[in-house]
Design a protein that fits this description.
14% of the residues lie in helices and 28% in strands. The chain is built from 4 helices and 11 strands. Strands 1, 4, 5, 8, 9 and 10 form a 6-stranded mixed sheet that branches. β6 and β7 form a beta hairpin. The chain starts with 10 loop residues before the first helix and ends in a 26-residue tail after the last strand. Pfam families: Oxidored_molyb. This is Sulfite oxidase-like oxidoreductase.
């Protein structure tokens, strides 16, 4: 069941991160637009996988999971967990980069390519952006070309184990080229739209584009 942020989110955490955006915290001014380094500027390498959330962990079982793909598409879909497993699945390895300054190398994922879902729903030519909504009400946004990059996944396994609840299981988005707040946990809806709409963190001072190598942490 979808939960609401109201009265449940970590207000102090949100206010702190809003202040980070206002103050430009963590910005180094050493952007590596050429992607010459594996570790983006201002990041530190970690071996664990830190858990960051807003104090809400929706309890969505695989049996109850549903993903709606809607908006400006010819063939809207509603997929259950088993439906995702029945689609062509791939394995992929990539790095993830969090705006709070940590990066983790060599994450092994299993899931469905965003390109596969796009082939099924067939976005209209005027669809320019993609909006994500999570089972806890969280939202974020990307351009359609960012979503349809060849390495973007709708993932259900990490390092050969089912994706844990704390990390967005049973299913999350993985967009490795962007800061990880764009990779929606507990994804419930993927909506193709013409006009962009800022999501939860974008409305609170975070950058709309979120490229780690050019330090697009804040807008």
């Amino acid at each position: 069941m979808t939960q609401s942020f109201s009265g449940k989110i970590k207000d102090k955490l949100i206010e702190a991160k809003r202040k980070w955006a206002k103050d430009g915290r963590l910005l180094t001014g050493t952007s590596d637009a050429a992607r010459e380094n594996r570790l983006p500027p201002g990041q530190r390498l970690v071996k664990d996988w830190p858990v960051l959330d807003l104090g809400i962990t929706p309890h969505v079982s695989a049996d109850d999971f549903k993903l709606d793909i809607t908006g400006l598409v010819e063939n809207p879909l509603s997929l259950g967990f088993v439906d995702l497993l029945d689609l062509p699945n791939v394995r992929a390895r990539n790095d993830i980069h969090c705006v709070t300054s940590w990066s983790r190398y060599d994450n092994d994922w299993q899931g469905v390519l965003a390109l596969t879902l796009a082939e099924m729903v067939r976005p209209h030519p005027d669809a320019k952006h993609v909006l994500f909504t999570a089972h806890d009400g969280y939202t974020t946004n990307v351009r359609i070309d960012q979503f349809l990059d060849e390495d973007v996944l709708i993932a259900h396994h990490w390092n050969d184990e089912p994706l844990s609840e704390e990390h967005g299981g049973p299913v999350r988005v993985v967009i490795p080229k962007l800061y990880f707040w764009k990779s929606t946990k507990w994804v419930r809806e993927i909506r193709f739209v013409k006009e962009d709409a800022p999501g939860f963190w974008e409305e609170r001072g975070y950058h709309n584009n979120a490229d780690p190598w050019t330090e697009e942490r804040y807008g």
